[in-house]
Amino acid sequence: MKKLAFLTIVALFSLNSFSQSEGQLHGSFQLDAQYYANDSLIGAVVPKELTGINSYANFNYTKGAFKAGIRYETYLPPLNGFDSRYRGQGIPYMYASYVADGLEVTVGNFYEQFGTGLILRSYEEKNLGYDNAFNGISVRYAVTSGIMVKALMGSQRSFWDNKGNVKGVDGEFSLNQLVPCLKESKTSIILGSSFVSKYQVDNSSLYYLPENVGASAYRLQINRGKVAVSGEYAIKINDPSSDNGFIYKNGEALVFNASFSQKGLGVLLTAKRIDNMSFRADRSALISDLNINYVPDITRVHTYSLASMYPYATQLKGEAGLRGEINYTFKKESLLGGKYGTFLSINYTRMANISKEAVNDTIKIGEPGTLGYTASSGNYFSELFSDDLFYQDLNFELTKKISKKFKGVFTYINHQYNNDIIHGANSVETQGIIKSNIIIADITYKHKPRTAYRLELQHLATEDDYGNWAAAVLEISIPQWFFTLINLYNYGNVNEDQKLHYPKFAVGYNRGANTFTIAYGRQKAGVVCVGGVCRAVPASSGLSLSIVSSF
Prior knowledge:
By secondary structure, the chain is mainly beta. It is 6% helix and 54% strand. It has a domain at 59-73 and 83-259 and 274-296: Beta Barrel (Outer membrane phospholipase (ompla), Chain C), CATH 2.40.230.
């Protein structure tokens, strides 16, 4: 059936492209492949096929108010670290939509987000193998100037199938456009509200499970000049599931953001508190399958290899978090600014467990089939600064243009990482808090307008886990080509046999809209996280190929 649909859409695209010159067809292609080699020293996992391939091809057609598209995917087999249930090939994503007089209708597959995503967000992240696209109907309608209403119904992608029964509606209201006395106000006020429900048959012989589970959210955004404040609160009725151990407690979530920005200075404050907010189309789903909602991660995203060695994963069972960031630019010709100016960023993040109390003396916390526990949101600050720490990150980043050709980025990071909670430590891993200090120097020399040399030196010092690490990266970029040499060295491992190097060499070629990259070397085992959603990456060694193209 999908092959027939594919051929039909391609035929329509082709006919319309020849007959209607104003129609446009555009798309993209990505292929990531690896040949795996045996490497017993690092515990490399080698699949039976010796190779892994993930590839994606997108085709989108637009003509006036009409849009349609398809995506073809191949996992033969999936790269190591991606769920084996992706194995196969086909068309998991196709859609058609049109806009008429303020009404936009989409049928087929689509992505959507209500507010910050606390009760609904569907999206894809290829690096994580994450895709929870809806398959159904989506409607958006601009009722009048200042009022936008969205509604959807459908199932969600679960690898090659679609599962669940989800319905939702969202409304957003701009008071400045709706209230006459606010039209000339310098203060912008936007209100929003959402409701989402899921349906799943109760087929349990052990528990009486709710078949309809609803969640609602309310948000506010205020902007005035240099200041912006926003927040969203969500509540979900009892939703016993594999995630929460089948307890009947309601879920709550609160996210708050405040920022101040002017020339040379930026200040950001973010806070959140999450309590039992797993929300899936299937109560038995685990890991990253069939998530209806998304709880934003407020920790800083580190891109350097050693800085990202201990990434944070959002704890849906309960977490209290706070992040503060100050960005300041020292002016040119000032004492600290020098000839070209200096940029300084200071960031602090802390994530901790929420306080949980037993419902009564006879029921232990988290007992299946009960309310589970009680937790008061009024304990936020005592929770945040309690000893039950999940994650803490204090970092300083200094960016300095040294001369017309030299630029440097210098970073210091102090990390605390609860391996038991975030990574789920077992008997052979580090227990408790892993404390580390990281320093990074990133120097770029721009030899010519299109030729640059970059040297990156990193050091991670810790008395925990696998001990100290050192890393070096040398990158050369010339017109159309780039070369990268990387080495990570675990020189502080207490096991002499595990004081290993992880070298990798890569060469890339750019031509127009096409980029080709070939790499050979080792990949250490670890965890990759994007926005608080994570994927375990097993150790590997071998040759990899990447192709990215668009038209």
